[in-house]
Write a structure and sequence with these properties.
This protein is of the alpha/beta class and 274 residues long. It has a domain of 187 residues: 3-Layer(aba) Sandwich (Rossmann fold), CATH 3.40.50.150. It is built from ten helices and eight strands. Strands 1, 2, 3, 4, 5, 6, 7 and 8 form an eight-stranded mixed β-sheet that branches. Strand 1, helix 3 and strand 2 form a beta-alpha-beta unit.
């Protein structure tokens, strides 16, 4: 099942380019928060679940394990390479209650009220029109169904350090470009829920500390995510300079066993009223 071409080609190209190594170098940050969101999402053993922006399956696989063989998890992603890599992972894992499709979150190709739960991890601000995506989540949920998502908190300690180190390499602010801070507060998430028709249940923060054992690992995280779009246009010399600034900026959290990075995620939960 494949969607029509989408206007967000720049970001799509970035995610296609990082698909093979996404969350596979250094500590698995997205896998950790994916498992935590699934733990908190109140999935039942016979749930039909939609995982939006599934990536390499940080939510998909723990959700499949949680619901068991009588449930179904459907992952969608606009990156064809992410879908391809995740399909390989599904076959290797022998998962029989999972499928994944290339699809646009703003035009979900499933009927109304198809799912008991919708999951979305660290993706909401990437959609060109997040309000449309949220309304699509609402549409495909059954009455009483729950939406569970994560975003990065605006005050996430490690992201603040990343910004300080790499701000000189970011292009001039484009109001149409994805902004990680758009949904970086409790109020912004609750407001987005309400505007889409959801009843907010809870938005709270969780911290997790990860240890990067080499200087290459945090750099790999940066160029293995959407931040890569700031780095790719640079010359080789400028890339080396940017990496050096990043490493220097992380000295404040270096300990004898490595660089201690604290990521702060916001967990948001809402319901489609019955």
């Amino acid at each position: 099942m494949k969607s029509d071409p989408k206007p967000n080609g720049g970001i799509m190209g970035i995610f296609n380019g990082v698909a093979a190594s996404y969350d596979r170098i250094g500590p698995r940050v997205f896998a950790h928060f994916g498992e935590r969101l699934v733990e908190r999402a109140s999935l039942t053993h016979d749930s039909r679940v939609l995982d939006v922006a599934t990536g390499r399956g940080a939510l998909l696989f723990p959700a499949a394990q949680k619901i068991g063989k009588h449930g179904k998890v459907v992952g969608i992603d606009f990156s064809s390479d992410m879908v391809r890599e995740t399909m390989i992972d599904i076959r290797r894992a022998g998962c029989t209650n999972v499928e994944v499709h290339e699809m646009d979150a703003e035009h979900i190709q499933f009927p109304d009220q198809s799912f008991d739960a919708v999951l979305c991890g660290f993706a909401l601000w990437f959609f060109p029109h997040p309000d449309r995506a949220l309304r699509e989540f609402f549409r495909v949920l059954k009455p009483g169904g729950r939406l569970s998502l994560t975003t990065w908190a605006k005050d996430s300690p490690i992201q603040i350090l990343y910004r300080k180190a790499l701000s000189a390499y970011a292009p001039p602010t484009d109001p149409k470009a994805p902004n990680i801070d758009t949904f970086g507060t409790t109020d912004s998430i609750e407001s987005a829920f309400r505007q889409a028709g959801f009843q907010p249940l809870l938005v709270d923060a969780e911290d997790a500390e990860f240890i990067y054992t080499s200087e290459d690992e945090p750099w790999a995280f940066v160029i293995g995510t959407a931040m890569k779009r700031y780095i790719d246009p640079l010359s080789d010399a400028a890339k080396s300079e940017a990496k050096a600034k990043l490493v220097a900026g992380l000295e404040s959290v270096r300990k004898p066993d490595g660089i201690h990075a604290v990521y702060r995620a916001l967990f948001g939960f809402a319901v489609k009223a019955a």
